[in-house]
Amino acid sequence: MNDIRELIELLKRDWEKPRITFEMTGDHPPFTSECYFPEEIAWVPDGYPVVVPPDLHYFWRSTSTAKLFFCRNYGQWGLEILDPVAALNVTRKEQADLVYTRYVSTDLIIGNFLGDSDRLVVDCSPENFGKIIVSTGIGKRKDWFRVADSFKDFFNRYVAAEGSKYWEDELIPGVGER
Questions:
Q1: What value does the mean pLDDT take over residues 65-93?
Q2: Nearest to 171 by CA among 144, 151, 152
Q3: Which residues of 112-127 are buried (b: 16+ CB within 10 A; e: fewer)?
């Protein structure tokens, strides 16, 4: 398993410019994807109100945000990992939605999958601290996927899959209600 910083450097080197991910049929141009990391220095605010796993904290200190394997042509592919402030804002907004929310107080939304309503969530509860979940929009919590035991594990697997949702083929939904 690679270190988070090594993966970031690999993605900056190999995916900074668009690469063909797969060929489409007909008159469509090839489907390309790329990765984007900002140049500014990352930070996690002092007094951050959520205790986050060390590997996520390390990612945020290495690069505050990222767009992974996104497609500029269609906008229907990829993952945006949110910076710490955006993660907190999105989480609070979703938890306040009394009609549709399935998020609990110990969830922290750390990413948005582009082109659909899936979200990347880190479980900050004491019993499941650091586990990574993919919420399926307005689907029931019991239908969500637990995709990794840590952010580092998720990041490694997602990079190895070149942005494909590896869990859709290999996992059965079932985070379950809490």
A1: 90
A2: 144
A3: bbbeeebbbbbbbeee
Strands 118-123 and 79-81: unpaired
Q: Is the pLDDT of residue 47 over 90?
A: no
Between CA 91 and CA 122 the distance in angstroms is 11
pLDDT at 23 over 70: no
Q: What is the pLDDT of residue 112?
A: 96
Give the pair of three-digit tokens for residue 136: 């399926």
Structure tokens at 130: 């650091």
User: How far apart are alpha carbons 134 and 152 in whole angstroms?
Assistant: 15
pLDDT confidence of 27, banded at 50, 70, 90? low
